[in-house]
Write a structure and sequence with these properties.
The chain has 7 helices and 15 strands. It has 287 residues and is an alpha+beta fold. It has one domain: Clavaminate synthase-like (Double-stranded beta-helix, 4-Layer Sandwich). The strands form 4 sheets. A 7-stranded mixed β-sheet has the order 1-2-3-13-5-15-4. Strands 12-6-14 form a 3-stranded antiparallel β-sheet. A 3-stranded antiparallel β-sheet has the order 8-7-11.
């Protein structure tokens, strides 16, 4: 396996590897996991994975992380399809807002694996932002203040029953919203990566619905909770912290949800886009 960095912040390409041949006890799987943690996003081009192959590869990185609200592929309970048909130009683009996968869970997934099956000739890129780099660029005083903040995560903005009509626009996906989306989960805003020991901002504007901590008054004023949420979103998604990937058929991209957030761009009107996704279990974020 050869690793080539794709930006000076995050993202790398791995070549010379066939993901179908990796087992959990293989040295190659350990090397791949280390590369994902180090580079935060890893692109492995030229793969041909069936749903069963993708499931087996996911297990080489760790156990399955449950996927709420989205129904899996028939016969493959750990795989979901991310698909938008060419005939659905006005439909919601799944993953089309900045987020870290299922950060509202008590133990969000460590890794997400996305395999490109059918991609537009142009458009439909995915962009990732490094929360490690965003943390490291904070001024000392700001970092000290944020160290005492707890983020309140919820799926309410995405998967509450009020959103069912939005998701129903995608004929190739079965997304079932529920009142469970209104539940909240608290995680530290500043976290330590359990494998690298590096610090990061565990934040995304979609699932973080509130903040608690010293000096946060819950108001909409300049020093209030809303202003800090808006500032955190603008800071963490700044272009200097990002990597953008243009998909090719057969690409597999694996990323670390513990230190990134991402967004899928909706700029492929009239073209079809299909990817298959699996997730690998993580642990509760820790400060």
């Amino acid at each position: 396996m050869e690793i080539e960095c794709l930006t000076g912040i995050l993202g790398a390409r791995a070549t010379g590897i066939d993901l179908r041949k990796l087992g959990a006890d293989d040295e190659g799987a350990a090397d791949l996991r280390a590369a994902i943690c180090a580079h935060e996003v890893l692109v492995v081009p030229g793969q041909d994975l069936s749903p069963a192959d993708q499931t087996a590869f996911s297990h080489s990185l760790g156990p399955y992380s449950p996927v709420p609200f989205v129904q899996p592929v028939d016969g493959h309970p750990e795989v979901i399809r991310v698909v938008k048909e060419a005939t659905e130009p006005e439909a919601f683009n799944f993953g089309g807002v900045w987020h870290s996968d299922f950060s509202f869970l008590p133990a969000p997934p460590a890794f997400t694996i996305l395999h490109a099956i059918d991609v537009p000739d142009v458009g439909g890129d995915t962009v990732w932002a490094s929360m490690t780099a965003a943390h490291d660029a904070l001024e000392g005083g700001v970092r000290e203040r944020l160290g005492g903040v707890t983020a309140i995560h919820s799926a309410s903005a995405s998967y509450s029953p009020a959103q069912q009509g939005l998701h129903a626009q995608l004929s190739g996906m079965d997304i079932r919203t529920s009142e469970d989306a209104l539940e909240t989960q608290r995680h530290p805003l500043l976290c330590t990566h359990p494998e690298t020991g590096r610090r990061s901002l565990y934040f995304n504007g979609t699932y973080v619905r509130g903040l608690e901590g010293p000096g946060i008054d819950g108001s909409d004023g300049p020093g209030g909770e809303r202003a800090l949420l808006d500032w955190l979103h603008e800071w963490t998604t700044h272009i200097r912290f990002t990597f953008r990937h243009r998909w090719s058929k057969g690409d597999v991209v694996i990323w670390d949800n513990r230190s990134t957030q991402h967004v899928a761009l909706d700029d492929y009107r009239g073209q079809r886009r299909e990817l298959t996704r699996t997730t690998v279990a993580g642990s509760a974020p820790a400060s």
